[in-house]
Amino acid sequence: MSADSITPFGFESLPVKGALIHLSRSWRRMLRDHDYDALVTETLGHSAAAAGLIAQSLKFDGVVTLQIQGASALQMLVVQCTSDLDLRGLASASPEHAAANFSELTAGAYCAVTVDAGDRPYQGIVEIDDTSLAASLEHYFARSVQVPSHVMLLADSEFAAGVLLQQVPGQSMDDDDWKRLHFLIETLSPRDFEGEAGLELIGKLFAEDDVRVYEPRRVNFRCRCSARKTEDVLKMLGEDESRAALAEQGRIEVICEYCGHRRHFDAVDVERLFADNVVPAPDSVQ
Ligand SMILES: [Zn+2]
After folding, report:
1. Superfamily of domain 5-221
2. Could you tell me the distance, in angstroms and rounded to a whole number, from the CA of residue 268 to the centre of ligand 1?
3. Averaged over 33-47, what is the pLDDT?
4. Residues in a beta bridge with 201
5. How sure is the predictor about 112, in pLDDT bands with cuts at 50, 70 and 90?
């Protein structure tokens, strides 16, 4: 079993569903074009692992977006994971505010989880807990979704990982067992993810329990940007602005902030874009 996957599992004698996510290559690719400090890197990694775990836990066809709109040190953070487990994300931090911990980083920030399955997107507000994103999400699951959950998240510049444990709705659970499971996942450390953490790690972690491990699902870094969506950005910018940029630079370059993909528009492209009957570019994801 390789990294960049989510491994779902269940307990034979406890009403708990779980999943373990371990990101390596996909996570480093997400960081590639950015220069985040250690705290922002860690918070983005926690968010990426969490978005993957949430997407895996839902039966849906669409996109999960975890977003933090900052007020001080962290200006913005957004991670998206599709139901096919295609992941992308980015963050921006204020150069004027340095934060020493999660609490300072997210002071006054607003956090939301949106599940968009096409028709009516559902948005839940995540109250930010001072201590960590994991604690914030535990409160969110308990209060808003009413599914008691344990969340463990770990990340640095090399890996992002996490475990989500959720009680099966409608079944009662012994409190001591539930606390014991929380304690077990809290023992995870970065060292557990140095190799290919998956089946073996789950077995080691819950050695006392009868755990059933399911087929792992692959997670990929994959951006959802396209030529067509970039054209929409230029259309929103407007004809005058686009022509001005073209006159100044000879061509317009639009860089996707998520994946670094560069798209160029010359005079002919801009003419076509603002002509009356526009033929859109193919909606490819190159
Ligand atoms: Zn992109």
Report:
1. Hsp33 domain (3.55.30.10)
2. 23
3. 96
4. none
5. very high
